[in-house]
């Protein structure tokens, strides 16, 4: 039995990990989350009260963080400002949470010596050309494009420095694009699923041919738990599931599932600096830690995700109108 502190556990991937840990281990879990617009407490309903506790608070609050680190054995750090489009409109909270917040946690890890796992993204590596046979590996140079990805890259570099200079017992994982239940409707897949439910045509940025490498959030969670249990201190592990798809292909699947024409979408204003393609080589995680993804069939994963949004309208409906207003202001 381990006492785990999970930051950002009321968000999409953090809450998935909370469920995963409580279902698959004997660990006790505390979530630290400041409940920004991206959080949803409904994502944490139904958890076993004896093994789960929620603390509302900011990862930049050193006093609060210190107290929590004193009473836990390990921390998994998910909390972040996570949306690229928001980072282009207002980067300040990205610098604060992603950089200052990570710094605050690392200082507490340095003081207490507890195990620290840092959640990051493949976007720190920049993007690949469409016809490039290469995929990102753990040794690809950092080259982030957006305020979001640059603050995530900076946070990774802080972790590496705190390992090397202060002996913090940390690991880092950089994962590709996640999909699955309980993702905020600002993100691509839930936005298009809920648009279709509302009878609105999906919106593709630019020509819709940008490529993302999709992984189901449950597979991300199983990989993180594996790294927490068996990863080598100081190492970085890439997490992926061979899920490369153009944005158009994804929207076509969503339209097909709803019985609509495959081209019933609109092309809208492109994202400034829009990364072309991401692709992950996850062989280190497979070869060193024996991890494999379970969700190999993207079409089936998308179908079950669509079903979840159809069956859980009360979860996403309160955020939908405000999210679409933000997009409308940007012509998207
Ligand atoms: P999300 O936006 O859904 O959730 C973020 C959570 O962090 C929210 O609950 C929010 O309230 C909380 N939070 C934000 N600022 C905070 C602060 N200062 N103090 C405490 N809590 C705070 O994000 P997500 O998509 O679940 O991403 C989680 C992590 O995974 C991030 O670090 C992100 O960079 C990383 N990641 C995401 C993806 C993806 O596809 N979504 C892929 C790879 C890595
Ligand atoms: O309406 C849309 N139309 C569209 O074409 C939206 C919201 C997005 N897009 C495109 C932009 C991207 O090419 O879809 C793709 C995915 O967009 P997002 O869901 O915003 O994800 P992305 O920018 O790729 O970043 C995501 O994956 C990596 C997460 O939001 C990050 O937190 C994670 O680090």
Overall description:
About 45% of the residues lie in helices and about 15% in strands. The protein is of the alpha/beta class and about 325 residues long. It has a 7-stranded parallel beta sheet with strand order 3-2-1-4-5-6-10, with helices on both faces. It has a 3-stranded mixed beta sheet with strand order 7-9-11. α5 links the parallel β5 (about 115-120) and β6 (about 170-175). α1 crosses α7 (about 215-230), α2 packs parallel to α4 and α4 runs parallel beside α5.
Describe this protein with a few key phrases.
Rossmann fold; alpha/beta; three-stranded mixed β-sheet; 332 residues; UDP-galactose 4-epimerase, domain 1; 11 helices; seven-stranded parallel β-sheet; 2 domains; binds nicotinamide-adenine-dinucleotide; binds thymidine-5'-diphospho-beta-D-xylose
Instruction: Identify the CATH class of the largest domain.
Output: Alpha Beta
Strand percent estimate:
15-25%
Based on secondary structure, the structural category is alpha/beta
User: Percent helix among the residues?
Assistant: 40-55%
The oligomeric state of the chains shown is single chain
Distance between the termini: 47 Å
As laid out across the biggest beta sheet, the strand order is 3-2-1-4-5-6-10
Q: What is the overall pLDDT average?
A: 98
Quantity of strands, as a count: 12
Bound molecules: nicotinamide-adenine-dinucleotide, thymidine-5'-diphospho-beta-D-xylose
Number of contiguous helices? 11
Series of H and E elements: EHEEHEHHEHEEHEEHEEHEHHH
CATH topology assignment of the largest domain: Rossmann fold
* Dominant shape: globular
As residue ranges, the low-confidence spans are none
Radius of gyration based on Cα positions: 19 Å
> Which architecture of the largest domain does the CATH hierarchy give at level 2?
3-Layer(aba) Sandwich
State the fourth-level CATH superfamily of the largest domain. NAD(P)-binding Rossmann-like Domain
Number of domains: 2
The largest β sheet comes out as: 7 strands, parallel
